[in-house]
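Sample entry (174 residues):
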Amino acid sequence: MKKFLCLWLLFFCFASIVYAHDSETSGNASVIIHIDPNDAPKPGKSAFINIDIEDRDKNFNLNYCDCELTVSYEGKSLLERKLIPKIGPGLFNIKPLQFVFPNEGKFDISVSGKPTIAGLFTPFNTDYDINITNNSQSSHTHNDSVSIFSDILLGLVVTGGVLVYLSERKWFKN
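Predicted structure, serialized as tokens:
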């Protein structure tokens, strides 16, 4: 029972970490984006855009990708950068990009990539919208239901863990 609870707690902690980032899927690629500080950058202040890219077939390699991040505001491109691998440990496999959102408003962040070796992985293009405000939280939107799925999954895991714990403690037995 102790092993089960330890595994359950590790899963719960991992689920919480993943839930804090926006994820988008395009083709076989899954792109996770996180903006420091705390997914709530402020206008006029430095922010770091962190990205992780993986594909279902495990063929993605940033060294063989013509990958780019673009930040736009009202259709005007403010930043276009090639993505480069991150050296060292961490949750993200791409070197963070520093950017200052110049004002409040809705910004579009696009991450795209195509292989430099034909057929290595499926090309992808993902888009994220972020509303920059002076409030304590900025809001992110994307076109997939990962956050809803995460809420449901997290609720089921927590409920299941509590029920198993209680049944092991014989609270449901006569």
